Amino acid sequence: MSSSSSIASQAKPTTYHVEEKEVSHEQSNNTHHSSISKIFTHGDGNELVTIGGHTYYRHELMSAFGGSLNPGASPFPTYNINPAPLGLFAFGVGCFIMGLFNARVMGITVSNIAISVCCFCGGISSMLAGILEFFTGNTFAFTLLLSYGGYWFSYAVIFMPSFGIAAAYEGTDQFENAIGLYLLAWALWTFFVVSLLLKSTLAFLSMFFGLAMTYLLMACAMMTGHMGVSRAGGVIGIITSIIAFYNAFAGVATPFNSYIIPPVVPLPEIKFGRK
């Protein structure tokens, strides 16, 4: 079976990493692959990989890589651009600052200064990166960056007096519980994202697992009023932001501009037997 890839695939940037393991457990003697799975390997040495009806050589695919928000084997993008580091950096900065405030570092209890970061860094930068991911064909990154960009904007407007959201709860004890439910919804969505990263890399999975735990702990803190839970959520948020910076750095660091190239640790593949 012939490959649909181009000759130039050998000259891809070093920030993308070569796939060296099997993508699927389908056997090459199965003649009905397309009706069973969208991804399978075949050929005399399993050197061919078919993804969504298009066939490539294994060396022409990039593997899971947090620096490009790529969760698994996929063809290289048509456009030679990687907007993911911008979104990862914006996410990391917002998460770092909110983590510091939630952990009550320096005794700060009023976190309204973070509104500017939520809007102009976490919000605008993430959405801009997400829109650019649309043109690279990375649906996963497009979905995540736009959704979390929406989170930063929606969280910021809660504390903007002009929107009247916080003022609507004055005289009641519902405000903290309402924010708790809001954060719980984001925790649920982030756990769904985690389930899509079990075949990716350690840093990639750790970042979103830490984010999910941050959302969950902060939701519990808002609904229970326990300061210890809030501090724990803040500390995990800070750790999550550092992992986000690591992934962002991995997306821009190359042997041409840095002496430090972050290693990529792929998660072990779990093979399930077939009856």
Short description:
The protein is mainly alpha-helical. Helices cover 49% and strands 6% of the residues. The chain has seven helices and five strands, in the order αβββββαααααα.
Beta-strand share of residues: 5-15%
Number of strands: 5
Based on secondary structure, the structural category is mainly alpha
- What's the shape? elongated
- Largest beta-sheet characterization: 3 strands, antiparallel
Rg computed from alpha carbons, rounded to a whole number of angstroms: 21 Å
**What is the count of DSSP helices, taking H or I runs of 4+ residues?**
7
Question: Uncertain runs with pLDDT below 50, 5 residues or more?
Answer: 1-37
**Overall mean pLDDT:** 79
Family: Belongs to the acetate uptake transporter (AceTr) (TC 2.A.96) family.
Region (Disordered): 1-36
Membrane topology: Multi-pass membrane protein
Subcellular location: Membrane
What does this structure look like?
This protein is mainly alpha-helical and 275 residues long. The chain contains 7 helices and 5 strands, in the order H-E-E-E-E-E-H-H-H-H-H-H. A 3-stranded antiparallel β-sheet has the order 1-2-3, with no helix packed on it. The N terminus is likely disordered.
Q: Could you outline the blueprint of secondary structure elements for this entry?
A:
Elements: H1 33-36, E1 39-42, E2 48-51, E3 54-57, E4 61-62, E5 74-75, H2 84-102, H3 114-136, H4 139-158, H5 175-195, H6 202-224, H7 227-252
Helix pairs in contact: 2-3, 2-4, 2-7, 3-4, 5-6, 6-7
